[in-house]
Amino acid sequence: MRQKLRVAAYAICVRDGQVLLARSPGLDGGPPEWVLPGGGMEHGEDPHDTVLREVTEETGYRTEVTELLGVDSIRRVTPGRFGRPVDRQGVRLLYEVRVVGGELRHEVGGSTELAAWQDLDAVPGLNRLPLVDVGLRLWRERPAAGRVAADEGQAPGK
Predict the structure, then answer these.
(1) In contact, 95 and 70? CB cutoff 8 Å
(2) Looking at the predicted structure, is the pLDDT value of residue 120 above 70?
(3) Euclidean distance between CA atoms 8 and 94, whole angstroms
């Protein structure tokens, strides 16, 4: 089975009781999903630089990293070319960032279509990727090991 590894960096940016999120179009015609600003590292790029670049691309804001909150890993087998399965692993570094400049805008021609501040209390009602919850748990709990415990019945990183 083919194996594929993706390393990505994501931002948790909270201010005044709101979190900065981006919205991506739904997969296969599904509803749009809220995501953390961030994305995949380019070859040779440092993850710290990745998160700063991705936040600017997706939201228009310039940010600075204030803390590495933790690392999350996810693994799943998905269909690949010609119906052959691919064993995919994603390693996601989650950074706390703060806005230092720029203006909120939406990404054009990228992986997201909208950027917005969302009330922290409203996040549970949003259609969102599970990584949003992982990131907010890391931000709230700040575990020394940089990893949140998996919920019962749920594998780490899911």
Answers:
(1) no
(2) yes
(3) 9
Q: Are 102 and 62 in contact (CB under 8 A)?
A: yes
CATH number of 2-141: 3.90.79.10
Query: pTM for the whole thing?
Result: 0.90
Per the model's pLDDT, the better-predicted residue between 135 and 29 turns out to be 135
Spatial separation of the C-alpha atoms in residues 100 and 44, rounded to whole Å: 25
Higher pLDDT, 96 or 150: 96
Maximal C-alpha separation, the chain: 49
**Cα–Cα distance for residue pair 22/126, rounded to 1 Å:** 12
52 CB contacts (<8 Å, ≥6 apart)?
A: 62, 63, 64, 65, 97
